[in-house]
Amino acid sequence: MRIEFGTKTLKFLSKSEKSDSTRIFKRIEELGENPYPQDAKKLKGERDVYRIRVGDFRVLYKIIREDEVVLVFRVDQRSRVYRR
Questions:
Q1: Are 60 and 74 in contact (CB under 8 A)?
Q2: Among 13, 14, 61, 78, which has the minimal tally of Cβ within 10 Å of its Cβ?
Q3: CA distance 14 to 72
Q4: For residues 52 and 36, what is the distance between their CA atoms, to the nearest angstrom?
Q5: Which residues contact 77 (CB under 8 A, 6 or more apart)?
Q6: Rounded Cα–Cα distance for residues 25 and 9 (Å)
Q7: Which tens digits make up the pLDDT trace of 20-36?
Q8: pLDDT-above-70 percentage for the chain
Q9: How far apart are CA 21 and CA 13, in angstroms?
Q10: Could you state, in order of their start, the residue ranges of all structural domains in the chain?
Q11: Using CA atoms, how far apart are residues 80 and 12, in angstroms rounded to an integer?
């Protein structure tokens, strides 16, 4: 599957420490191979939206099956990732 990033995701990763962003990017690349890893949790009330944990961070992503795309739309610290 192809991986696409939302603008907030890219902005957050560009401001993060290099070690954190490298670890997060590596984990996101794995989603292209398997968008349903064992530790992925489906978000309640959302359709095809999942989260994975990467250290102190959460990665929220949506799977668009018809286009074969994994859209990573939010990455942030666990304490504030769900705030809108």
A1: yes
A2: 14
A3: 15
A4: 10
A5: 56, 57, 58
A6: 11
A7: 999 999 999 999 999 99
A8: 98
A9: 6
A10: 2-77
A11: 13
The separation between the first and the last C-alpha atoms of the chain, rounded to the nearest angstrom, is 27
**Residue carrying the six token digits 């490298």:** 22
Q: pTM of the predicted model, to two decimals?
A: 0.90
Which homologous superfamily does the CATH classification assign to the domain defined by 2-77?
Answer: RelE-like (3.30.2310.20)
Query: What tokens does 84 get?
Result: 């809108």
Give the separation between CA 52 and CA 42, rounded to whole angstroms: 9
**DSSP assignment of 28-75:** HHHHHH-SS-TT-EEPTTSSSEEEEEETTEEEEEEEETTTTEEEEEEE
